[in-house]
Amino acid sequence: MTVTAYIDINTPTGRRIVKELETHKRVVRIVYNDPTPNQIDSEETIAWEEAEEYLWKKLEENYGVDLRTV
């Protein structure tokens, strides 16, 4: 049987748990993964063009002028 656990190693308790697991190399295999944007369910992805347009719109709101024409 295999068990998969997600441990946050940004906390002291998480680091302590991983350190203990690392001492059992015969039965434990640890894989470190950083969450990628595809793994984060709460984030919505948008096209580059939409992001660029959003950026220009926010800059125009902050500075009161379309910076693309300056």
Percentage of residues in strands? under 5%
Helix content: 25-40%
Shape: elongated
Please describe the biggest sheet, giving its number of strands, its sense, and whether it closes into a barrel: none
Elements, N to C (H/E): HH
Q: Work out the oligomeric state of the chains in this entry.
A: single chain
In the predicted model, the low-confidence regions spanning at least 5 consecutive residues are none
Q: What value does the average pLDDT take?
A: 85
Q: What's the helix count? A: 2
Radius of gyration: 22 Å
Q: Helices and strands: which structural class?
A: mainly alpha
Beta-strand segment tally: 0
Distance between the termini: 64 Å
If you had to describe this structure to a student in words, what would you say it looks like?
This protein is mainly α and about 70 residues long. Helices cover about 40% and strands about 0% of the residues. The mean pLDDT is about 85.
Quick overview of this protein structure:
With 70 residues, this protein is an all-alpha fold. It has two helices and no strands. The model has no long low-confidence stretch (mean pLDDT 85).
